[in-house]
Design a protein that fits this description.
alpha/beta; binds alpha-D-glucopyranuronic acid; two-stranded antiparallel sheet; globular; nine-stranded mixed β-sheet; single chain
Length: 377
Amino acid sequence: MSHRAEFSGIRDLPELLRFSDGSPVTSDADWERRRLELTAMLEGLCYGRMPPRPSCSPVVRMIQPPVALRGSEQRSLVSIYETYPFADSDYRLEFQLYMSGAADAPPPVMICGDGCWRRITAETADIAHSRGFALVEFNRCALVSDPPFRDVSGGPREASPRDSVLQRRFKELDFGAIAGWAWGFSRIYDALEVSGVVDCAHAAVCGHSRGGKASLLAGALDSRFAAVCSSGSGSGGAGSWLLRAKGAEPLDFMLDAFPSWFSESFQKFRGQADELPFDSHFLKALCAPRPMLTTDGYADLWANPAGSCATTIKAREVYRFLRAPDDAAGWRLRDGGHGHEPEDWAAMFEFCRHHFSGSALSWDPTEVLYEDLPAGC
Ligand code: GCU
């Protein structure tokens, strides 16, 4: 069945393979320089500058030895770790590791930051393990809190205090919650590398909705992640501000309702969504040539699945330039609405497995089922 997106905002997306001064990107070395421009724009205008990678190795400890996960048919074992990313402080993060009892070598791993929502169930762990993956979950809100949603019909929300431990430690950087959460994925990676229990050369990231905005940013900015997945992430994630399909979340709503997710300077684009010099294709192109998958429900109009497809198509210009196949930047759309459903999880693991080990994929991550994607995408 084909779908109609009914785009309202339609304009040409900012170019990926041209430098800001208009000159073309013609070599891999050029692309490395262009990457820096894209990163500087995303950090400088939107998410805020991410804290740097700590110069020391983290101290990592197992604080709960593996116990059987109740209800798991794949004999999932869950253990809990803590990591101290900075040697000079007691700042710590905790994460859960789900491993199949049958794993005989460090397996590839998917890192999810949505522990605040408690999304990992025995079913999710089994979906991971039956496709050969371990699963890690941490609570991104332990890095930067996520103030509860407030109705903004009476006007914009007050500026948030930006007072997490991390924001106080790096006061000069003006990063919002999404960038703080994204930084967390990289610190979990550091910890996994030290622990040696999973195959860090095949570590992927994922998250849902606001957590998917963070996983996409994490994957875009830290190329140690071998694959990047994002579910229903919409505006500020895989969706599009410039190509707005009917029902998509507007930029101004997001600036009013969730100011703490972004840098303070992003507020200057209020009322000027069409003037943004970047869109989600920047994030996706920064993942290239690594596999990048978005999952969405067709009925999740707020997350703008059609705009996400359109920006992924644009990002493929960079995938091709870097000699990656088109299906390395893909999507999986399903019926239904907003959610990180078992079939989304399954799609993420199957997509990563396909790219990591060449196993066949039973669906086409490039198949377009919208009739009216903007020309040029
Ligand atoms: C709100 C917000 C979205 C976000 C979602 C979520 O709907 O407008 O941008 O993705 O919350 O995180 O659940």
